[in-house]
Amino acid sequence: QAKVAGRNTMCFFDPAMQEDISNRAKLEIELFDAVKHNHFQLFYQIQVNHLQQPVGAEALIRWLHPQKGIIPPIEFIPSAEESGLIIPLGQWIMDTACQQLKQWRQNPTTQDLTISINVSAKQFRQSKFVEQVTDTIKRHGINPAKLKMELTESLLLDDINNTITQMHALGRLGIQFSLDDFGTGYSSLQYLKKLPLYQLKIDRSFIDELLTDKSDQSIVKTIISMAQSLGFSVIAEGVETLDQQQFLQGEGCLNYQGYLFGKPIPIDEFENLFDEMLGLDKPLKRSNQA
Ligand code: C2E
Ligand code: MG
Ligand code: MG
Ligand code: MG
């Protein structure tokens, strides 16, 4: 038996650490199995414009674990990235989103809807990513302009020149890019202007206290005017109240996503929500407007 370690000495066999490692290994094995058996589902969260009309959806993955139930992406995406399982999983996400776009294409009321998928760094950095996207779009016969990709600042910054080349190649296909969680990274104007982006997506953390926090207000205003001067569209995530939406609209942010309009939900529920919203000839409960 090892001697009891004194204070402040490094202990390589810390049982907590050991447990952590074996939990991670276990998760990876289960994840491998889940990818093999397709134990995932895409949920869709509605995105609307300032008239509160649906313009599209963000696809958000859920793991349907046979014992544990629905597992949120935060609990397995990092592990999927580390293990490389994000590659087959990312392909499945793209295929599923494209299948959905293909269905929506058949119907005049849904044909203009876009789907945004979240693309992780490892997936984006694959040498054959552009080929895979091209092939997927062709295989499903969809309009590439309806498939949007959400990238994060850290992904972009990691290898900026390669990123720009890759974005241009995908942009030529017709794909549009949204910069996710904007404001939480270290974007400089210097490189923002070089990126072939379509949209900035304001991070939820600036929206939460938007009505009371003056610095959040100025950050949000700055992001919006920056987007405007660079020619990007802007969308806010995490919009939960009508007051937040109206503040954003007043500052010129004309696209929104958040619980105010709908949570991420399975496709059949999403389509019901969509029908419901279309059925209204007036915007949803605009309480302080006549
Ligand atoms: P994200 O791309 O920034 O997605 C937005 C997250 O905010 C989602 O969490 C969504 O459910 C949540 N959200 C949206 N509106 C509201 C709101 O009004 N209030 C609150 N409190 N939350 C809101 P979710 O679905 O748990 O996803 C978390 C993160 O996991 C995503 O952040 C994204 O980075 C990642 N992720 C999700 N799906 C995928 C995927 O298919 N591929 C990859 N690579 N990452 C994914
Ligand atoms: Mg996203
Ligand atoms: Mg986001
Ligand atoms: Mg976020």
From TrEMBL:
Residue ranges of domain EAL in the record = 24-278
Q: Which family does it belong to?
A: Belongs to the hemerythrin family.
Q: What is this protein called?
A: Bacteriohemerythrin
Q: Which organism is it from?
A: Shewanella aestuarii
Organismal lineage: Bacteria, Pseudomonadati, Pseudomonadota, Gammaproteobacteria, Alteromonadales
Residues of the whole record sequence present:
721 to 1010 of 1010
